[in-house]
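INFO  loader      accepted 1 record
INFO  loader      residues=377
INFO  predictor   begin
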Amino acid sequence: MASDQEDNSERVKRLLGKPGNGHCADCGAADPEWASYTLGVFVCLSCSGLHRNIVRISKVKSVLLDPWSASEVELMESVGNNAAKAKYEKIVPAFYYCPTYKDCMLLKDQWIRAKYERKEFQYVERQEPYSAGYREGFLWKRGRDNGQYLSRKFILSEREGVLKYFKKHDAREPKATMKINTLNATFQPTKMGTAQGLQITYLKDNSTRNIFVYHEDGKEMVDWFNGIRAARFHYLQVAFPGASISDLLPKLTRNYIMEGYMEKTGPKHTEVFKKRWFTMDERRLMYFKDPLDAYARGEVFIGSRENSYSVHPGLPQNTQGYHWQFGITIKTPDRKFLFACETDEDQKEWIAAFQTVINRPMQPREYAVEAYFKHKP
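INFO  predictor   done
INFO  writer      dumping tokens
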């Protein structure tokens, strides 16, 4: 005869089969094996660790390994992921970034705190820091030339349609003004060496400009990120009045398709290959001497297959000057671009990334970008 403890354990395991409970309540990862027995939600191992940061609110244990009391199982039965979502995510703004299991720990941590600790999606007034249309504050910004992080005043204004920063706290004129229509932001903890590191990009004279910022307070950084998304959302609603919300959301901010080191040679294919940091952003392939450079050394437009763009493994015969053995050739209507990867795996990943872009038909606005690249001096 099964003991009460064994019976409780089987009851809580069976709950994983109920609708909504088969994926983590916070990041959507499949097959969660942990649960918050105070909130009544099933979560993955990674999110269970973040729940331990709000121990006053959430207490977690393993579904498979830990003992369960009858009262704990009853709470799990009475709540579950779907009911918790209806409560804690009742009024999530359309522009707010809801992280997945693929995202960085900071985004997941602040999402969990926003839901359960600050209850931001139950009381709309608690969303003011990122939904008001105006935000002002100080962030640590990396210097373009010396790499030193210095405190800079930033202002985000939907009314003006800009994000700007000031070199001195009392300065009247901004050091840089970034138009919301070309703005992007993506967290870069590994590249920047800090969990709160945010890379902001914008176009200046149709070339990409990078700004690297952080703040010690994780909530502050995620509020800036969602403030930028809100400004972009409202700009795009005006710019594309017929577009649905689902069409606009992917355009608010974007992660890069691929980043990493490759070697490259010059247009004559006779120069020695040089190691560079590459970033694939939509159809722009940019290369930098250092991953944290403010400006790209060069940019290559990658069009579609229908427009005579293609990618191939290997390098043309008689190519010289490369150190890494795994070559890639990109053919455009005008010329070939030659790259070399350090490993076979890197080569396959870059080719897959390029192929994804090339297989996608070009949008009308992308033809204008292509035309700019062709006539670029």
